[in-house]
Design a protein that fits this description.
The structure is a homodimer of 159-residue chains.
Chain A (H helix, E strand, L loop, with lengths): L8 H20 L8 H12 L6 H8 L3 H13 L3 E5 L7 E5 L1 H22 L4 H21 L13
Antiparallel strand pairs in A: 1-2
Helix pairs in contact in A: 3-4
Chain A binds a DNA duplex (30 and 30 nucleotides) through helix 4.
DNA sequence: CCTATATAGTATGATATCGTACTTAACAGC
DNA sequence: GCTGTTAAGTACGATATCATACTATATAGG
């Protein structure tokens, strides 16, 4: 039995890369000056997944080096969007909690994107998006689980 | 008739953002030290779309500010992967041509990714990828055409 | 306990990305 | 041609991202 055809990976990743750029531009157009997509993503993660995460947990979740996450959190803290407090369970660690201002910013951004998406929905059949969503989710889960197979650098993938 | 449901946009863009990060890590693990995804993307664009593009055309194609593209091209030129020559049709402009070394690097990177993709194909049904590819392509084309509707910043979208 | 190892976070410097402002060339209208 | 405007590229500084190296704490084995 021959191997499955791996040919679709390259074009799929290629299209996804371009769509990511364009959708990020949509998001950042609705964020206040000084904030970019990674800042919003962290706020969204704290609300959707779990509040009070440690910086390392956030770095793992986003597949970025911990030094990058430290910087992102510092910006959020400087804007009063998160509170960083000591981790009561680990003297080395800290916990990141979203503030009321952070929640308002996250919710307000999503609300501001509503009309943008509604506008897009008038020109693109969103039923097709709903169709591909399960595949994208499965692909994301699959890649996320198999990323540890070949740890690249200091992305906290070792072990 | 009610508006189409725009709800799928947010989760689809969310999954796409994560997949982009993971697939970029796969690519960069196969690039020589000092080169990252944007460098490869430019080389790939010169081969797949058209060689001899101007820096501004490349910046438009990738939706990045022209100053970012200037820097990316400078790195490629420093590595001998592209040649930058004056534009015979426009005294203000230049043209970027890929070199033999650039072609070898691009082809070799794709070749190196083959086993990675083959490995992924053993754990994920690539027929599902082939199914969603047309939707992703249509979405990319759609977003690309409608990005000029709301020009954000200095991404050369005006006009 | 004590020691070796692993982990969380930080400090630092290098590179990447981006916005603003500037120079120069092209071009349109007169 | 002259002039005002647009476009291509660059200079510069600010922020973001990242790798390396370091400090401090936790944890496992003895």
């Amino acid at each position: 039995m021959p191997d499955a055809d791996s040919a679709p990976f390259f074009p799929v990743f290629n299209e996804i890369g371009i769509i990511e750029q364009l959708s990020r531009a949509l998001l950042e157009a609705r964020l206040p000056k000084g904030l970019i997509a990674p800042h919003f993503s962290v706020l969204n993660h704290l609300i959707r997944v779990a509040d009070g995460r440690t910086p390392v947990e956030l770095a793992r979740a986003f597949q970025v080096p911990k030094t990058s996450m430290t910087h992102t959190i510092a910006v959020l803290e400087r804007h009063g969007l998160v509170d960083v407090r000591p981790n009561p369970n680990d003297g080395r660690s800290k916990c990141v909690w979203i503030t009321d201002a952070g929640r308002r910013l996250r919710d307000g951004t999503i609300a501001a994107l509503g009309p943008d998406f509604a506008d897009l929905a008038r020109g693109f059949d969103t039923a097709r998006l709903a169709q591909i969503l399960p595949v994208l989710t499965d692909l994301r889960v699959f890649l996320d689980r198999h990323r540890n197979a070949e740890p690249p650098r200091d992305r906290l993938l070792s072990k």
